[in-house]
Amino acid sequence: MSISINIPDELYQQALVIAKTHRVPIDEVFASAFVDQLAVWQRLQQRVVRGNREKFFAVLDRVPDVEPDEADRI
Q1: Is residue 19 included in any domain, yes or no?
Q2: What is the rounded distance in angstroms from the CA atom of residue 43 to the CA atom of residue 59?
């Protein structure tokens, strides 16, 4: 399958450097990045399914209600 997408020039240039460095077609660089990102989304979806709202709030209830240290403030 072939598709056409618009990407920022800076991203294309970075991909081009990677393709030249590894001596692979630029299409392969983008396909590989796409596959990696899909895997991240799939893992995230699996975690969502395992999530439990009640457990999440139970953990939050154990967090002390105090102001952050001065060093932790922006």
Answers
A1: no
A2: 22
Point out the residues of the chain with pLDDT beneath 70. none
> Quick one: which of 28, 9, 8, 5 has its CA closest to 18?
28
What predicted TM-score, i.e. pTM, was given to this entire model?
0.63
- 30/26 Cα distance (integer angstroms): 6
Q: Quick check: 15 and 29 in contact, CB under 8 A?
A: yes
Does 16 map to a domain? no
- Decide if 58 is inside a domain: yes
Instruction: Report DSSP state, residue 67.
Output: P
Q: From CA 65, how far away is CA 54, in angstroms rounded?
A: 19
Q: Which of 37, 35, 38, 40 is nearest to 27 (CA)?
A: 35
φ/ψ of 4, rounded to 5, equals -120, 130
Integer Cα distance of 40 and 45 in angstroms: 9
